[in-house]
Specification:
The protein is an alpha+beta fold. The protein is 24% helix and 33% strand. It starts with a strand and ends with a strand.
């Protein structure tokens, strides 16, 4: 995957400006989801301080059930998530 002129590579830490751009894209996605999903869902985005990884959670407010999606560029453990999306 390309972010501007930078090609993301598996298990290689991207420069901070690339990580910030990825986070900006995911923040935009969260805002779109908040607009599109019914009000019975909450949408949140967690961010890793050590890598580009971000964690999107979509939760049914009434039932408490949640879907957790991990966005990442490395082979770290994503077992705590329902889906892992890799950038490589």
């Amino acid at each position: 995957m390309w972010i501007g002129s930078y090609k993301l590579k598996k298990n290689v830490k991207a420069p901070d400006y690339v990580n910030e751009q990825i986070r900006g894209y995911l923040e935009s996605l969260v805002e779109q989801l908040k607009q599109e999903l019914p009000v019975k869902y909450s949408v949140s985005l967690g961010k890793s301080w050590q890598s580009e990884a971000c964690y999107l959670t979509i939760k049914d407010i009434k039932s408490g059930k949640a879907a957790k999606i991990s966005f990442r560029n490395h082979d770290g453990i994503a077992a705590n998530y329902d889906l892992a999306v890799y950038f490589f």
